[in-house]
Known about the structure:
Helices cover 35% and strands 16% of the residues. By secondary structure, it is α/β, with parallel strands linked by helices.
Amino acid sequence: xxxxxxxxxxxxxxxxxxxxxxxxxxxxxxxxxxxxxxxxxxxxxxxxxxxxxxxxxxxxxxxxxxxxxxxxxxxxxxxxxxxxxxxxxxxxxxxxxxxxxxxxxxxxxxxxxxxxxxxxxxxxxxxxxxxxxxxxxxxxxxxxxxxxxxxxxxxxxxxxxxxxxxxxxxxxxxxxxxxxxxxxxxxxxxxxxxxxxxxxxxxxxxxxxxxxxxxxxxxxxxxxxxxxxxxxxxxxxxxxxxxxxxxxxxxxxxxxxxxxxxxxxxxxxxxxxxxxxxxxxxxxxxxxxxxxxxxxxxxxxxxxxxxxxxxxxxxxxxxxxxxxxxxxxxxxxxxx
Length: 336
């Protein structure tokens, strides 16, 4: 059997697909398994031990409509796939599976025109990991291991420099995410100060380079003694997280990456409409993970929909003490 997995999207989307791919590899050790991804997650997938080949689909660059797209399709057809597995309900994903020559195309029912040959229901109130394992089940695989997984490589010179500068305990904060900008928690600077004062923690701030400037308004001069590291590659970020005692961050890719690596992790969830279903889909299931959140759903609020200032104020109702308590539940500070 020759199987093409199609996985486009964010780091978090990629990581919640790993258990299904792992299950297929373990259930079909002789199968040829390849994955088609976009450029932003290639660094994540290239080290995956369950895949025989990783192929990049650069939709906005070399593989956009025209000769570049046809060249990619030709490459896929040469690999003679018997099956394609689609992790997202995108017609462009289904089209690629069809054009690849795969006769069996498995994915979530889009409830519209589809090129899939086998469809399973998609649920808004069910874990994405479990739903992805349902795709593996369509291949005849009994999959029960839902643990996230990632494979950090050796630390780069940049990461070694960061680690050499830091002592213990080492805490990584991810205080900003573009996808969660409307629900960002405004107390990260206060949290960093408490971690340093109460535990003598060394704090490193992570994020994308363009996220540093929006953060400056929330932080004291000089980042309050924390070390900014906003320019790390995905492999560098993974190796840094592997060395940390704790990561605290937003509901975003680095949070899921930390869980996959096995680092103690606290995720902060700002209020939103449909929060309960969002948690069912996305909240990691790990003994090393805790979540800090408000019990309210935005849909139940009389002020919904509210503006950015009101949302920021609401997110700030999650206190530093609550976040610290979650970290202590994970054993943080026992040896400090």
